Amino acid sequence: MRIELATAPGDPRRPNEDYASVALPASGQGGALVVLDGVTPPEGDAGCAHGVPWYTTRLGGALLELAGSRRDASLADCLAYAIGRTAEAHSSTCDLSHPLTPQATVVAARWDGDRVEYLVLSDSVLLIERTGGAVTAVLDDRIDRLRAEGRRVGPLRNVEGGFFTAAADPAVTAKAVTGSLPRTEVRALAALTDGASRWVEVFHEGDWAACLGLLRKEGPQALIDRVRAAEQADPDRTAFPRGKAHDDAAAVLVEP
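Request: output the structure for the sequence above.
Response:
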């Protein structure tokens, strides 16, 4: 089994809001990965005394533990339990009904000898390489569809007809993209926050198959380094429009 991961802040003066982790059970059979991209709120009061890095650490840790230990529960159920557990940890001190309460995108996957199960919520991505070499990107494309319609996405977070992130309501897990595949059909998995997937989606340096090929050949840090080089070559965001000149980035590669 091969496992590699890397993450880097978009601005070294600010905390990295991405979370990336992998767990392997003591049995040596199977494993789980979790990647979260914390949503940076606008300046001002977001109703929480803790902040996004605290939230992604809590949620990511809870989801990883549950995904690894609760094989009787689906990944969607594990995420619901993790959201509820995290909400309970700060419900007495923070306003969890605030629309900007800390939240995150989610990619999770787990595997054993029989199946590979996956979940994607919001605009991070999971790449699945089949044993025949084909690469599939599992995407929750709600934000892209809203933008294609010319709509402002900010007011449409976690409302019907909009897009969804993990925040304080466990029911959001019903909106996640989920599925499973026979273990024998999967050669590799790669999870990327949108700060890393910029290599494909913003800078158009290659397609998803080329991205996974780069991860396999040079590793996740090399992908992030290439994204940083592309960002630095366009500091004013004129050639490649994007919300942030530099974004937190995380990438995980697993060859189970």
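The chain is about 30% helix and 25% strand.
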